[in-house]
Amino acid sequence: xxxxxxxxxxxxxxxxxxxxxxxxxxxxxxxxxxxxxxxxxxxxxxxxxxxxxxxxxxxxxxxxxxxxxxxxxxxxxxxxxxxxxxxxxxxxxxxxxxxxxxxxxxxxxxxxxxxxxxxxxxxxxxxxxxxxxxxxxxxxxxxxxxxxxx
Length: 150
Prior knowledge:
Largest sheet: 4 strands, antiparallel
CATH topology of the domain at 2-96: Alpha-Beta Plaits
CATH architecture of the domain at 2-96: 2-Layer Sandwich
CATH superfamily of the domain at 2-96: Ribosomal protein S6/Translation elongation factor EF1B
Strand order of the largest sheet: 2-3-1-4
Structural class: alpha+beta
Strand content: 25-35%
């Protein structure tokens, strides 16, 4: 049997539970046709690069599939019929990725907050010019250069 990675985009106005039900429905189609789905991941609601059927965001889900091509074709046919599915992409791969996908690893990294704090909380960065009293006043500079007295 062939190995596939399948990404599914569902409409933004359906709930996360409905998306999980959709994934289970398509997983059942694969299993009924002699395949298996060893891993599913819900990536959450993300912005789309452009509007698709008047939607600016979508629920993203990943399915790793080990199935014959007929099972994948049947699942894709059912997805075309379903109104909640905006887009899908199935790619045949040599081996399935173990552990978390890159999207979930990125989200974990973002949640940790590697940068630490707000960007304005940094002390001594390139915008810090030192105390105000150490710098010359602007109006003093202009009177010296123009040669007029204030």
